[in-house]
Amino acid sequence: MKVSFGIKKLHYALIDPVSGLYRAPVSMPGAVSLGISGSERELTLNSNFGDIPFKKEKGGVSGSLVIASLPLAFLYDVFGIEIDENGVEIEQGFDEARHFALLYQSNTDEGKIRECWYDCTAARPQYSIVTNDTGVTIATRQLNITMRRNAAKLIRGYKAPLRARVASDKAAYDTFFSEVYGA
């Protein structure tokens, strides 16, 4: 593969913090770009399981997702933002970061591919509003994301990959967004 372009069909799937199981993927239209750092970082996994010790692992990467608009479902699921009865957006927040899988499709010079990053956390969205004298400028949202292997599965000794990728000529391609692959 020489050239990758065009991110689309972006989805997220929440991860249950105790079991490590994934909910059904939810569509997030409006993806503009995704940049991923190739360098691995050492991550500390907080087990929260009584006497199980903390564990360090290699394998986390970081990235930046730019999206035209973040759906209310994602804002609620990941950041605890709700709309009250008066239409006011209120951030309730969560005590711990919400983890999710990130799935999407992109094109390459050799065809389409679909990818899944199995365990992601996102920092609060960054955005800017731009004034323009000549026309409309779309305000995008940027999410800084950390991707790693599913910690709840690692603690239990299950297989926990970092990422999966499938080409359009493979059988798993057609059902890739119906559930998190291999979950």
Please explain how this structure is put together.
- The protein has 183 residues and is mostly beta strands.
- It has 2 helices and 12 strands, in the order βββββαββββββαβ.
- The chain has helices at 72-79, 151-155, and strands spanning 4-14, 26-27, 31-36, 41-45, 55-67, 81-83, 89-91, 100-108, 111-122, 126-127, 141-148, 163-167.
- Strands 1, 2, 3, 4, 5, 8, 9, 10, 11 and 12 form a 10-stranded antiparallel beta sheet that branches. The chain has a two-stranded antiparallel ribbon with strand order 6-7.
- Residues 42-56 have low confidence and may be disordered.
Structure keywords:
globular; two-stranded antiparallel sheet; mainly beta; single chain; 7% helix; 183 residues
For the secondary structure, the number of strands is 12
Question: What order do the SSEs take from the amino end to the carboxyl end, as H and E?
Answer: EEEEEHEEEEEEHE
Would you identify the regions where 5 or more consecutive residues have pLDDT less than 50? 42-56
Secondary-structure-based class equals mainly beta
Q: What is the percent of helical residues? A: under 10%
Q: What is the CA-based Rg, rounded?
A: 18 Å
Instruction: Kindly report how far apart the N and C termini lie.
Output: 27 Å
Overall form: globular
**What is the tally of helical segments?**
2
Strand content: 35-45%
The overall average pLDDT, rounded, is 81
